[in-house]
Write a structure and sequence with these properties.
The protein is of the alpha/beta class and 212 residues long. Helices cover 55% and strands 12% of the residues. It has nine helices and five strands; from the N terminus they run βαβααβααβααβαα. The protein has a five-stranded parallel beta sheet with strand order 2-3-1-4-5, with helices on both faces. The chain starts with 5 loop residues before the first strand and ends with a helix. The relative contact order is 0.21.
Length: 212
């Protein structure tokens, strides 16, 4: 049995990751692909508990603690859900993964990409993304979208503009280092155009789907 593929969706808050994930899931299932959608942090019970900690706006969590908590949640998700699914031949679509920590904690929190990568390499082991779709949007526009959701912002969403600017800069640095894996998509387009662009960037991984 062939190993499944791991496709991740990245970008700053308000870029439209969740919308794209839902659209991609439907599009790929309709083409006959065995694929599941997971989110980060979370996806399995223990990781969901950690999610409650890292997004709680009433908690004081230091930058290093935050990075370690995200890595811990990721390790649990990899061992409990990601690796078993990939080994069974199931494809996975993941709303955030390792690049989020590299950008948010490495860049936004200024811990350094290499330092954050080290703890996450330990967490994910062989579960490296096959393709990453990076949704690019101006930080202020992204924040405006997030604020229009009608719910109270979580702990990270309360950060200032400079935090998201550093996070975006880190994402761009990561994409320049690995352009074959990380494909940039203009998230300012209407959702249907973002979905179409994402499918183009996945086409080389999906020869059977493309032929269907």
């Amino acid at each position: 049995m062939n190993r499944g593929r791991l496709i991740t969706i990245e970008g700053i808050d308000g870029a439209g990751k969740t919308t794209l994930a839902a659209g991609l899931l439907d599009a790929l299932i309709s083409r006959g692909l065995d694929i599941k959608l997971l989110r980060e942090p979370g996806g399995v019970a223990a990781a969901e508990r950690i999610r409650e900690l890292v997004i709680d706006p009433d908690l004081h969590v230091t930058a290093r603690t935050e990075a370690l908590l995200y890595a811990a949640a990721r390790a649990q998700l990899v061992e409990e859900a990601i690796e078993p699914s990939l080994n069974a031949g199931t494809w996975l679509l993941l709303d955030r993964f390792i690049d989020s920590s590299l950008a948010y904690q490495g860049g936004g929190r200024e811990l350094g990409i290499d330092a954050v990568r080290a703890i996450n390499d330990f967490a994910i082991r062989t579960a490296q993304p096959d393709r990453t779709l990076l949704l690019l949007i101006d930080p202020q526009r992204g924040r405006s979208r997030s604020q229009s959701r009608g719910r109270a912002p979580d702990r990270l969403e309360r950060e200032h503009d400079d935090f998201f600017e550093r996070t975006l800069a880190a994402y761009l640095e990561l994409s320049s280092q690995d352009p074959e894996r990380i494909r940039k998509i203009d998230a300012g387009q209407p959702p249907d155009q973002v979905l179409a662009a994402a499918l183009v960037e996945l086409a080389d991984l999906l020869p059977d789907v493309a032929a269907a």
